[in-house]
Amino acid sequence: MIPSTTRRNVLAWLGAGAALPVLAACGGIAEAKVYPVTYSDEEWRRRLTADQYRILRQQSTERPYSSPLNAEHRAGTFLCAADGNPLYASKTKFESGTGWPSFWKPLPGAIGTSRDTSLGMGRTEVHCARCGGHLGHVFDDGPPPTGKRYCMNGAAMKFRPA
Prior knowledge:
Strand order of the largest sheet: 3-4-8-7-6-5
Number of helices: 3
Helix content: 10-25%
CATH architecture: Beta Complex
Mean pLDDT: 85
Distance between the termini: 74 Å
CATH topology: Metal Binding Protein, Guanine Nucleotide Exchange Factor, Chain A
CATH superfamily: Peptide methionine sulfoxide reductase
Low-confidence stretches: 8-30
Strand content: 15-25%
Structural class: alpha+beta
CATH class: Mainly Beta
Shape: globular
């Protein structure tokens, strides 16, 4: 049976066609990339805590003010919790008032970024350059000298004192 072509059907198909690019962008399908540190999903689950897995491998976010690293002020280095990659020097950490550890500059070559439209808005996701683990997002409302705020999930990192 061939459906009748009514004005309503035509408008419905046009609306669906117009919505497809928006829906595809919101899906946030990441391009496949091979990282130097790679494990199967099963191995990542074994190596990480439930919170670390949810954040690093599933791009989730911890509750604000829930990480002990938010109050970490000693000299040292913040590392990726998944692979130990050095990410941020403690001297670049600042109090952003957001409830997440924030930095104004990563260590050279430590991170990568990608476009994130998962919540229907454009943001820049920050991930570990060695394992691809999701760390947080970067925003343009940070302090000098960079004006950047690397807003990181504390569960995605570990701290190594100097």
